[in-house]
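Newbie here. two chains, one complex. Structure please?
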Amino acid sequence: MRITCPICGERDSREFSYRGADVALHRPDPEAGEAAWDDYVHLRDNPAGETRDMWYHEGGCGAWIVVTRNTVTHEVIGSELAAEVAR
Amino acid sequence: MGDLIAKSACDGLLPLEIGGATLTEIVFDAITSVAPWRGHEQAVSDALKSQMGAAFPAPNRSTGKAKSRAVWSGRGQALVLGPPLEPIAGAAMTDQTDAWACVALEGPAARDVLARLVPIDLRDGSFKRGHAARTQLMHMSIVLMRTGADRYGIMALRSMAGTLVHDLETAMEAVAARG
């Protein structure tokens, strides 16, 4: 599997480590209520199809990136810097 | 106090010449990391130009010449290899002179040797002279730069110098054995 880092270009997946779904970028407001926080902390989708997850370019530039990929076809569709998604 | 004997990172390990590749250590007078604060990128680049004759490198690039080079080393950060720097306003700077093992791999077999160890595309079309990369050599994080048609600079953390030389030596032997 090859992942395109927005800074370094196409790289081998061994340079990246996986964090999980990009929920960390959608942290609810502290006052958002129990349901929102329960969802944020515990509930994860398991999509057959397109998913967005966070990868760390550990063996490269050290950027956190959000990768859009398809869990059915294994196609890597795109990637963005997490810093820009969160902004 | 008596003079202490300074040992380089690869002391006793290099140079090596195996087949069509040679591996030598490069010892710089100084290695300094330079990280411009947000909004100060241009001013820091100008200051670097006046101090060591090379601009702040773009991502995945190096600037300058053999004894005075700046290489991109991560987001918003470059390593200046060669002359010691005066402090630059608007940049976070750290002396890393003794923190790195720096080697040059050169010769007609150099790229074949690297291709066994590094998971990036090293072909002429994608990794040219003046290009640089943060990547891995085996499982070790390195700074890689192409400094000539058949010449590459490799930097690894100093504590990994023995591993760096061992991995390169093994690959050099394997490439040479294929003739």
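Moderator note: The first strand of chain A starts at residue 2 and ends at 5. Chain A has two helices and six strands. Thread marked as resolved.
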